[in-house]
Amino acid sequence: MQPFVVIKFGGTSVSGLPQWESIATVIRSRLDEGVKPVVVHSAIRGVTDRLQAIADDETPDAEAALAEIADLHRALAVELGLGPTPDLDAELERLARAVRARHDATGPSAARTAEILACGERLTSAVGVPWLQAQGFDVTRVDATELLHSRPRAQAGATALDRERDYLSALCDSEADEAVRARLAEAGEVVVTQGFTARHPDGSTVVLGRGGSDTAAAYLAGKLDARRLEVWSDVPGMFTADPRRIPSARLIHRLDYAEAQEITTTGSRVLHPRCIPALRSRRIPIHLHSTLHPHLRGTEVLPATERGHAHLKAISRKDDVVLITMETLGMWQEVGFLARAFQVVAEAGLSIDLVSTSETSVTASLDASANLLDSALLAEVVDRLSAFCRVEVIASCSAISLVGRNVRGLLHRLGPALEIFEEHRIHMVSLASSDLNLTFVVDEEQADRVVERLHAILLIEAARTEPDGPFGPPWTRIRAGILEPEEQRERWWHRRRDELIAIAAEKGGAFVYDLDTVASQMRKLLAVEPVSRVMYAMKANAHPDILRTVRATGGGFECVSPGEIERLEEVFDDLRADEIIFTPNFAPRADYAFALDRGIPLTLDALHPLQQWPDLFAGREVLLRVDPGWGSGHHEKVVTGGRHSKFGIPHFEIDEARALVERIGARVIGLHTHSGSGILDPDHWTRVGERLAELAEAFPEVRIVNVGGGFGVPDREGLPPLPLEALGDGLTELRARHPHLELWVEPGRFVVSEAGVLLGRITQIKGKKGLRYVGLTVGMNSLIRPALYGAYHQIVNLTRLGEPPEGPVQVVGPICESGDRLGTDRPFPESREGDVVLIANAGAYGRVMSSEYNLRAPAEEVVLGA
Ligand SMILES: *Cc1c(COP(=O)(O)O)cnc(C)c1O
After folding, report:
1. Which PANTHER family match (predicted)?
2. Residue 857 pLDDT exceeds 90
């Protein structure tokens, strides 16, 4: 049977043509994946609220409210370009009947309310399904009441409240259900059904309560034993904190079920907490996505991997918390005190969230929003408790929870974040016995500050120090729309998968290069208007075919050693000296002489050559590499005065350099700075250029400003590429301010990183659940970047591309060194010995840094044919 994927679309995702177009795109790509999409959708945003108001007789004129709902759906039908809509007319008629019948005395009134509420989703189906059919999909509309059957709470002895909830907040089973699977297998290629709705054993329609579309989709995914559940809404997933309050909050790409459950129950509303148990036992992954950023990788909820150390994922916050402290003398001697106290709370229909106890007191928190707590009810509870203990109530509190595995391990780092509590009280601290959440209850007015500080101290740090960690881009970037469809952008290696598999089968392991990508990256930089020259930093990858491709596009070369110059001479027999710029660092005198003999322009990055070897440079043109002393700001002299870095002439030696040059009779024709790598901030080079242009005022002969390399490429899925237009705009303004200066750049990584992949084959697999290792034929002797810099490389099982991940694995090589690890905690499909694994972005600083360590030959290089 074809595997099912259940895809849920929320209220904002079904309300207009652009949204339905996104739905069609998602359906299309799932069909391409070879799975059967089962679409579960909500009512159009706002409709359920209106239906609720009608059912509760809270609208002055039910007929007028109905007409409004009808108009809303007819307008959608017009927007979608539909002609007559008989299904919609029939559903509107059914709704009108249910509304007229709301005061009838037949059956429970909750059932009549449910019948009205359930109409919202049906109305949406009635418009959406014909539109999808018009797009050419073979769609079967299945009523959710045929698929989901509710399970009434305690049959005997159920309270009136329970019976009402059986209609308005019904529970269903999510056990695999062969009948439902068979029913949908026979349906058309796409199934559409409504969320929120199910059938009561008495035959009436019930609804699943607020957030019930998520739960319906989860139940259905369970029944279908689906490959995964996708939840599409207007947010891309779960964040490290509430992004509306903490804009630097980062998207979390991966969570395990327990962590996700903790986050949903401690504040986030992205996913209904009831969804998770339905899927957890059968290890069905949940993927969260945003219809506003459909290509952004959202949050994946997967089975856990056991890891020892503390792993904070998020800080969540719940407001409107009320604390009740009950104090009695010698409490532990008083048998049944807790039971008595809790009985009072339960009888008031309230539920307790957190509890902490000491010998003489118990503090319990009540979540007011969930508890429908009002002051009269609270007064009554206090009154009854006061009969046997002293009671203190603290209202308007916030519960702030640190969520993640082994949060206990973070305790020692909390100090600085909690400093503000020298003046303000922490009312309660509670560490869950699962060690998944550590909660502080504080006054609501302190909560913003506490969350902000905890987030800054714990999470921003975690995201920075864990390049392999689960964190995605910050909300500020997502909101600004700087995220391009990076992740699902088709990579060349998707297209050429078969060739790659054949290469790996033959060679065992190989670096494979795609020259079209090299050429297109070069052209992107050459197209940045104000840039006059693009000098490829060939230390990133010196393969002859890559050098030829770079030159064919019009690029020059930046070399750092005589060996690189010789490589160019081997590859090209007509290369001119001015196609090269030589930038050695701490190199011997002979290296400078080597370049000068050939007339190759060079960049000096220290005073030593000028001081000690003046004869070499007499009458020559040189560039000076300067260390602009970043980060020094206003206190430049104080902070960095006298500090040398390995690279560049520090700004406090510039005057001395100028004097030396004049004395020797050399001419400074350019200034240069290369400061860092993998930079994705488009303003960086403009800042560098502006600084160099300022310094250039002291050098009348300077005509070149070389702003170096460092142009980043997104190394992880979902990160946006460097916005070259913004870069161009900044440089254009720079150029306008300094029209006499030429701008040069020296990209390395940008040109070749994405053009290369490293292929390996699986050698061995170790471990089952928890810590699993997947061994490859290639390791750190081929690609040392993960071990050397903690660099992140996307890793995929090419043989099983698109198969669902089983759980995180550690990807390791065959080198006897514990640092021989290419990826940590990567989602990976079930794999076998011999599978071909691809490590992306391996074109830069890959093979050039490889070694024979362990006397194992590194992967060899293969260039793909056109
Ligand atoms: C390495 C290097 C570059 C290229 O750096 P990327 O980060 O690969 O762009 C440019 N200029 C100099 C002087 C370098 O040493």
Report:
1. DIAMINOPIMELATE DECARBOXYLASE, GROUP IV DECARBOXYLASE
2. yes
Determine what percent of the chain is predicted with pLDDT higher than 90.
55
The residue type found at 47 is V
Domain with CATH 3.40.1160.10 in the chain: 4-43+122-234
- Rounded Cα gap, residues 843 and 340, in angstroms: 69
List, by residue range, all CATH 3.30.2130.10 domains of the chain: 312-479
Separation of CA 676 and ligand 1 centre (Å): 8
**Stretch(es) of the chain classified as CATH 2.40.37.10:** 756-864
756-864: CATH class:
mainly beta
Cβ count near 423 (within 10 Å)? 7
* Structure confidence at residue 580 (pLDDT): 98
708 CA from centroid of ligand 1 (Å): 7
Pocket test for ligand 1, best of 525, 586, 603, 677 (most atoms within 8 A of CB): 677
Sign of the C-alpha dihedral computed for residues 21, 23, 24 and 26 taken in this order: positive
Start and end residues for every CATH 3.20.20.10 domain found in the chain:
528-747
**How many A from CA of 748 to the centre of ligand 1?**
5
| Long-range interactions of 340-347: CB distance < 8 A, separation 24+ | 340/388, 341/385, 341/388, 341/389, 344/381, 344/384, 344/385, 345/381
Tokens of 729: 């705009």
Residue 636 has pLDDT above 70, yes or no: no
Contacts with 644 (C-beta within 8 Å, 6 or more apart), sequence order? 627, 650
Nearest to 100 by CA among 150, 144, 65: 65
Contact call for residues 286 and 276 (beta carbons, < 8 A): yes
For the stretch 158-193, pLDDT in tens is 677 778 888 998 989 889 999 999 999 999 999 999
Give, in words, the CATH class of 4-43+122-234.
Answer: alpha beta
Dihedral over alpha carbons 356, 357, 361, 363 (to 10 degrees):
20
Q: Following CA atoms 222, 223, 224, 230 in sequence, which dihedral angle do they give, to the nearest 10 degrees?
A: -40
Domain range 312-479, its CATH number among 3.30.565.10, 2.40.50.140, 3.90.1570.10, 3.30.2130.10 = 3.30.2130.10
Calculate how far, in angstroms, residue 540's C-alpha sits from the geometric centre of ligand 1: 8
pLDDT score of 637: 38
| Pocket of ligand 1 from Cβ distances under 6 Å | 537, 539-540, 558, 560, 583, 674, 677, 708-711, 746-750
SS3 32: helix
pLDDT tens digits, one per residue of 413-469: 777 767 766 667 888 888 887 788 899 899 888 888 788 878 877 777 666 666 567
| CA–centroid distance, residue 120 to ligand 1 (Å) | 59
Position in ligand 1 atom list of the atom nearest CA 845:
8
Q: In CATH terms, is domain 528-747 a member of 3.20.20.10?
A: yes
SS3 88: helix
Amino acid at 271: L
CA–CA distance, 586 with 697 (Å, rounded to integer): 27
Best probe residue, ligand 1, of 518, 539, 624, 645 (max atoms within 8 Å of C-beta): 539
What is the identity of the amino acid at 664? I
Asked if residue 496 lies in contact with residue 756, where contact means CB atoms within 8 angstroms, the answer is no
CB 197 within 8 A of CB 17: no
Query: What long-range pairs does 350-357 form, CB within 8 A, spacing at least 24?
Result: 350/377, 350/381, 353/321, 353/399, 354/399, 354/428, 354/430, 354/439, 354/441, 355/430, 356/428, 356/429, 356/430, 357/331
**Cα 50 from Cα 58, distance rounded (Å):** 9
